[in-house]
Amino acid sequence: MLINKQKGKHRRGGHMDRRIKKTKDLLKETLTELMEEKELRNISVRELTERANINRGTFYLHYQDIYDMIDQFEDEIISSLLSIIEKNSPISADYYILPVLLQVVEYLYKDMRFCKALLGKNGDSNFLSKLKTPMMKQARSSFPSFQKKYDETFVRFLTVFIVSGGAGVFQEWFNEGCKVPLRSVIAPCEIMITSGIEKIS
Question: What is the pTM of this model?
Answer without folding.
Answer: 0.73
